[in-house]
C-alpha cells in the first residue's frame, strides 16, 4: 500500500491524507483522499494488480472510454497499479436492498449499459464483447448512470451470457433466491429487450440461452462455495424456467 500511495503522490503532485482498503478477491484496491497544492481534496481508487500486469486492463478501459461506454478513466498507471478517479455511487450488490433508489430507474440504466457494451466490437450477429467477471461489485450506479469497474479481461459470447450470468449473481447473493429477485431479473431482461430493434415488440433474445448461462453460473457458484454447495444444487434443481421468465 505504501508504495502505491507514494507513486500516486509523485505522479499527481498531491498529498494523501486518508486511505482504506476496499473489498476485492483478486487484487488490492484502495480508496484514497488526497489534497492538491491548492488545497483541493480529490478522491482516487488505486488498483494493485497481484497476478498480472495492468497493460491489458488499461488498454480495455481506454478503448471503452473512447466509445462512450461508462468505465473509470485511467489517470495514471505503471506495470503494477492503476490510478482512477473515485466514482461516488452505489454498488449493484447494495442497490438490490436500497429502497431509497427507484428500482425501475436503475434496472433500465443497467440494461442500457449492458446493451451499449454488447454493441461494441461485435464479432458476428450472435457474439459480442462481454464482461469476464459479472460480480455485482463490478457495477456502480451514480444516481443517473451505471459504470462497469473490472476489466482485467473481457470475453466474447452471445449477449445472453451476460444477462444469464448477472441474474445468477443477483439470485445467489444474500438474501438468496427471494421472490422479488426473480422479478428484478425478469425486469432486467425485459428492459434489455426493449432496447433491441423493434422496441421490444419482437425480441431477438434467446430465453433458452439466458437460462443455460444462468444455470451454468449457479453451478459455478456451487463449485466455489463448499459450505453452500448442497443448498445451491438443490435450488438449481427446483428452479422453474416458466417462473423465471414470468410465464406462469
TrEMBL record:
It catalyses: L-threonyl-[protein] + ATP = O-phospho-L-threonyl-[protein] + ADP + H(+); L-seryl-[protein] + ATP = O-phospho-L-seryl-[protein] + ADP + H(+). Pfam families: RIO1. Residues 40-151 form the RIO-type domain. Keywords: ATP-binding, Kinase, Nucleotide-binding, Serine/threonine-protein kinase, Transferase. GO terms for molecular function: ATP binding; protein serine/threonine kinase activity. Transmembrane segments: none annotated. It is an enzyme of class 2 (transferase). SUPFAM superfamilies: Protein kinase-like (PK-like) (SSF56112). InterPro entries: Kinase-like_dom_sf, RIO_dom. It comes from the Bacteria. Its EC number is 2.7.11.1. This is non-specific serine/threonine protein kinase. The lineage of its organism: Bacteria, Bacillati, Bacillota, Clostridia, Eubacteriales.
Amino acid at each position: 500500500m505504501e508504495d502505491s500511495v507514494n507513486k500516486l503522490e509523485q505522479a499527481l503532485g498531491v498529498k494523501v491524507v486518508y486511505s482504506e482498503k476496499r473489498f476485492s478477491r483478486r487484487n488490492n484496491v484502495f480508496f484514497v483522499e488526497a489534497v492538491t497544492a491548492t488545497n483541493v481534496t480529490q478522491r482516487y481508487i488505486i488498483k494493485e494488480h497481484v497476478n498480472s500486469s495492468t497493460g491489458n486492463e488499461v488498454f480495455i478501459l481506454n478503448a471503452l472510454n473512447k466509445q462512450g461506454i461508462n468505465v473509470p478513466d485511467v489517470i495514471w498507471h505503471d506495470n503494477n497499479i492503476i490510478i482512477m478517479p473515485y466514482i461516488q455511487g452505489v454498488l449493484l450488490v447494495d442497490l438490490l436492498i436500497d429502497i431509497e433508489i427507484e428500482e425501475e430507474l436503475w434496472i433500465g440504466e443497467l440494461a442500457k449499459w449492458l446493451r451499449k457494451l454488447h454493441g461494441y466490437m461485435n464479432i458476428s450477429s450472435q457474439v459480442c464483447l462481454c464482461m469476464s467477471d459479472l460480480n455485482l461489485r463490478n457495477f456502480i450506479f451514480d444516481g443517473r448512470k451505471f459504470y462497469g469497474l473490472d476489466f482485467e479481461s473481457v470475453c466474447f459470447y452471445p449477449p445472453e451470457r451476460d444477462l444469464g450470468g448477472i441474474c445468477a449473481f443477483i439470485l445467489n447473493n444474500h438474501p438468496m433466491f427471494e421472490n422479488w429477485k426473480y422479478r428484478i431479473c425478469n425486469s432486467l431482461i425485459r428492459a434489455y429487450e426493449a432496447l433491441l430493434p423493434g422496441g421490444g415488440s419482437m425480441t431477438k433474445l434467446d430465453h433458452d440461452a439466458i437460462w443455460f448461462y444462468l444455470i451454468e453460473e449457479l453451478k459455478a457458484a456451487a463449485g466455489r462455495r463448499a459450505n453452500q454447495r448442497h443448498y445451491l444444487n438443490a435450488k438449481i434443481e427446483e428452479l422453474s424456467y416458466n417462473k423465471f421468465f414470468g410465464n406462469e
